[in-house]
Amino acid sequence: MAPQKLVFIGTPKSDQMKNIICIFLLIAAFKADAQKKGYKIYISGDMEGVTGVVTKEQLGPEGFEYEKFREIYTNEVIAAIKGARKAGASEIVISDSHGNGQNLLIDKLPKDVTIIRSWPRRFGMMGGIDETFDGVILLGYHTGTTNKEGVRAHTFSSAKLADVKVNSESFSEGAYSAMIAGNFNVPVIMVTGDDKVIEETKSYLGNVEGSVVKWAMSFESAKTLTPDSAYHLIEKTAAKAISRIKDFKPYKVNTPVTLEITFKNYRPSEMLAYLPQVTRPTSHSIRFIAKTIIELADFVTFVTGYSNDLEP
Ligand SMILES: [Zn+2]
């Protein structure tokens, strides 16, 4: 036994080696741990609240400035990613949640993010959210349809919907996204857009971080920052939001939850009222009571996505 024991008594030199190996192992373990503890962030991106956007010319493939503004939108997302990473985000998912859902120039995005594109998808602008996320950034958002101010104020569809109420409160897309995230216990930590959407978001979420990239002058006019200055602001704000991520609370909505949608046209409410779960309190509106937020969200996905001439 004695000789065997001797084998394990190191000389000062082998002790040194052991110490060095131990230190290396500790550093590696620490690094792996830090990586594991990095925040997982969801960025829901819209375009109406992007720097300089004021009309449909910037918002869809038929607009003369669309290609330019896809770039600016993409750069704003990149700025948010950079800021978030600096402050400790390690995993980032972005949902392209405007128009056709295919606006972001995905080859310009860093290689370690993933992107959710196109429709339909469960939870719409929050598609892919679940309880594994630590925080949500609403980028390029705009005010809701009943807000008298804000560039391109609308909820889901400016052409088709006049109001979306949840438990009797008129909801914006921001409030709706916050509610979906809140259902999974994930807080919204930051919003970017015009001055009015930042104000509106703070009215129901409290002190979230906000980047004002333009100041609304009317439905289709604004005083705007330049893109470069907006990127700088968004990066800085994202870093600040992540650094105080523990301050934010998930947005909770009581269930069962009552949804009321008012259409601009007459026939959608007339048709939807044939469903046994749907009532029609006024000519242009429907009411649906959902047991859970998920049930409500699935109903909204159906109502905003269905038409009987769908293809393919
Ligand atoms: Zn929108």
Descriptive overview:
With 312 residues, the chain is of the alpha/beta class. The chain has a domain at 40-154 and 172-247: Rossmann fold, CATH 3.40.50.10780. 36% of the residues lie in helices and 23% in strands. The strands form 2 sheets. Strands 3-2-1-4-7-8-9 form a 7-stranded mixed sheet, sandwiched between helices. A 5-stranded antiparallel sheet has the order 6-5-10-12-11. β1, α3 and β2 (89-96) form a beta-alpha-beta unit. The longest helix has 25 residues, at 12-36. The model is unreliable at 1-10 (pLDDT under 50). Residues 46, 48, 142, 173 line the site of zinc ion.
CATH architecture of the domain at 40-154 and 172-247: 3-Layer(aba) Sandwich
Taken from the alpha-carbon principal axes, the silhouette is globular
The top-level CATH class of the domain at 40-154 and 172-247 is Alpha Beta
* Distance between the ends: 79 Å
Structural class: alpha/beta
Name of the CATH homologous superfamily of the domain at 40-154 and 172-247:
Dipeptide transport protein
- Overall pLDDT score: 93
Question: DSSP strand (E) fraction?
Answer: 15-25%
- How are helices and strands ordered from N to C? HHEHEEEEEHEHEEHEHEEH
Number of helices: 8
Number of strands: 12
CATH topology of the domain at 40-154 and 172-247: Rossmann fold
Q: Nearest-angstrom radius of gyration?
A: 24 Å
Largest sheet: 7 strands, mixed
